[in-house]
Design brief:
mainly alpha; AhpD-like
Amino acid sequence: MHIEPLRPEEIRDAELLELIRRCEELGVPDSLFPRILARAPAHAKALLRALLLSHTEGNVDHRLKEIIRVRLARIAGDPYFGGLRSAQAMQAGLDEETIAAGSGKFEDDPRFTAAEKWALRYAREMYLNPETVDAAFYDEGKKHYTEAQIMELGAFIAFHYGMQAFARTLGARPLPRNEG
C-alpha cells in the first residue's frame, strides 16, 4: 500500500462515514479505498457519492454495470476493483461465469443480448480503440438504448476506469471479508 488508509476511528465526518457504510454494504468498494481517500474528506465524499450514483442508480441494469466494471478493472490491470463484487448484482442473480464471459469473448455468447453486447463493446472500445467510437457506433447504440442511457454508460465507463487506474497506482488489494 503506497498510502495508508485512515483507521475507522480517525474519520469523524458523519457524511463520509455514511458513504463508507454504503460502499461496504454494496461491496464496491470495501472500506479500504474510501479510508485512503478520507485523507482528503471533501474529495472523498464527492468521489464516493459519484461512485455510488454511477453504479447503483440510473436506467441501465446494475448487473450489466457490474460486468462492465469488472471488465474495466481487468483492462486496467487493477486487482483491487477487479476482486470486489457488488452484493446487489450478485443478489440479482449475477454469477462469476457471466462476469468472466463479459470480460472475455462475449460477442457470440448467448448469455448476452444485442444491447448488452453493444454496451460491452462500448466499454472495450472506449479505452482500447476510442477512434472506433464514432457516430455510426453511437447510432448502433441508439437501437438499444436511449441517449440518456448511453450517456449513463459512457459516464460510468469513464469514471470507473479512472478510479480503477487510480486504485492500481495505490497498490490496493481487496480486504479480507472479515476486515472493514
